[in-house]
Here is the input.
Amino acid sequence: EPEVTQTPSHQVTQMGQEVILRCVPISNHLYFYWYRQILGQKVEFLVSFYNNEISEKSEIFDDQFSVERPDGSNFTLKIRSTKLEDSAMYFCASRGASPGLAGDTQYFGPGTRLTVL
Amino acid sequence: GESVGLHLPTLSVQEGDNSIINCAYSNSASDYFIWYKQESGKGPQFIIDIRSNMDKRQGQRVTVLLNKTVKHLSLQIAATQPGDSAVYFCAEIRLRYSSASKIIFGSGTRLSIRP
Here is the structure.
């Protein structure tokens, strides 16, 4: 069964450093997402991406964050200058059909645990 | 703003019994409601969804009930098994025809199974 994959599974970085989290969405999917989950809290939407541009972003997704689909398979989240409060699990998700069709869903990857020291 | 919440943070159920996990929502504009299961160290896994114009949907061992009058959503798991131990999130989607639709997650209920 196709699945979303993410690398690395765990990233440790120093505050102020740049990190790039990588995702390979399901191959025929068109919509891509990043969410994050701070330990013990709910999953929060960060950004959605479609047709090579951001569709929507939350207030969390400030100028320190960026997303890119550099080729036909990868989808990346970059944090330019990490802060302690960026420590969280970051989940990538993808979905296939256009938003008007019933029954479609977002499939989540296993996540990258980001620890900022 | 966010509108999905859960009644209880934890639920303990005897193996073999049915589990019922409840969720309240406040936004009537939601188009879909979804239940996700998250096992330790893993990403959310889709269980079942229900459109806002339905009141019941059944899957394999799971049933979702939607009561729009009281804005309440529930997930019923039949014959609960040890593998059902996880955190369960209710979530909503408001469809956007001009952009990708985001999921708004609730706080989660941790389901534990007693042998």
